[in-house]
Amino acid sequence: MATTIIISFCVLLLIAYVFDISAKKTKIPSVILLLVLGWLVKQIVLTTEIQIPNFDFVLPILGTVGLILIVLEGSLELELNKSKFKLIRKSISSSLFPMLLMMFALGYAFSYFSGSSLKDSFTNAIPLCVISSAIAIPSASNLSLSNKEFVVYESSLSDIFGVILFNFFALNDIIDSHSFLNFGLQLLLIIVVTFISTIGLSFLLSKIDHHIKFIPIILIIILIYVVSKTYHLPSLLFIMLFGIFIGNLDELKRFKFIHYFKPDELNKEVHKFKELLAESAFLIRALFFILFGFLIETHEIINTDTLLWAIVIVIMIFGFRALQLKLVKLPLKPLLFIAPRGLITILLFLSIKPEDSLPFVNKSLILQVILISALVMMIGLMATKKEKDLVE
CB neighbours of 25 closer than 8 A, spacing ≥ 6? Predict the structure, then answer.
């Protein structure tokens, strides 16, 4: 049994690697292929009546670790200098404002049709409003440098803002001035934790001379994230700021304290760290979407009760995105199409308390929105294939 499982995982991950390579040429998002692969494995298991363990509990674990690695990998690629400030401002507005508009629009619609409170409606709406960096960042690999940077900033910030908003509505029984005060204190606390942790981790990265040094760093990062999340702090903010800090040591050399980290030597270690992160993120992301595809029931994909909602939601996603891109004067092609829902949507959906969930915001709706938004992205990127090098 153990041998069969090992062989199966090796074969599935090698297929996922082929999907990842081919995605750059075919423009087919690997997430769609991975979901289909997982679903096909499920059909084979059902046909052959093979007994396998229950993997439901593994999905949130893989998703959490994958989100950490993907956001960290993306933030390490970001350059922090004066020439990027305009891009950062546009990324912040493009990740936040469409999310807020969609949250209010969907929240009021959910409340109207279900009769639920606005608080519960907003909680259920937010997972559908967040761009998935796990899908967006790999899909932007063939874009021009400026567009790729925008997608990395925007999707990473979207994940962060989405988690912060979700926690605000999901964890506060009553939304009042006390809730906002508590929210402000949480932001302040995570900034302090980020500063202390970043200094400490950077010091460790520069000082550890043991042949195993990156795995302990990753484990500490995951530990800080999970502990911060346990206390309802916006822990993704820590991940992104840490990545930006160690990825921009050259820009920070003018500060005297940076020299304590031996930035020239640390830069070499950061380069190795990025390579390990990229491979680890691929592994976890592939396992997550294959497993999610495996857990999909066929009737959930073709559920006509939620299909109309899914189509309306996807229209809203790209409608609000087009409006925002126009406002910040960014090209619609190909950026309009890179607004997929994915890993973060699933994680937030799984975090909704049963007593707060709405009957029509179910696994079918989440799956349909993810697939349709990924298909729109695929078609859009294929249509703009010849234009990608012209967009600056």
Answer: none
Count the alpha carbons within 13 Å of 280 in the hemisphere toward its beta carbon: 21
- Residue from 342, 295, 289, 340 nearest 20 by CA: 289
CA dist., res. 267 & res. 103, Å (int): 40
What are the b/e assignments for 355-376, b being 16+ CB within 10 Å?
Answer: ebebeebbbbbbbbbbbbbbeb
**Structural domain tally of the chain?**
1
**CATH label of the domain that carries residue 53:** 1.20.1530.20
**Position 76: which residue type?**
L
Nearest CA to 130 out of 157, 92, 111 is that of 157
* Domain extent at residue 310: 2-390
DSSP result, 169-207: HHH-SS-SHHHHHHHHHHHHHHHHHHHHHHHHHHHHHHH
* Residue 29 scores a pLDDT above 80: no
Question: What count of Cα atoms within 13 Å lies in the side-chain half-sphere of residue 108?
Answer: 5
Q: Write the DSSP string, 359-383.
A: TTSSHHHHHHHHHHHHHHHHHHHHH
pTM of the predicted model over 0.85: no
User: How many Cβ atoms from other residues are within 10 Å of residue 81's Cβ?
Assistant: 9
CA distances from 96 to 21, 131, 160, 191, 352 (A): 32, 10, 10, 19, 21
The letter for the amino acid at 155 is S
136-167 per-position pLDDT tens digit: 887 887 778 888 888 888 988 898 888 888 88
CB atoms within 10 A of CB 24: 12
Is 225 within 8 Å of 239 (Cβ atoms)? yes
Contact (CB, 8 A) for 325 and 94 = yes
Residue with tokens 């041998």: 3
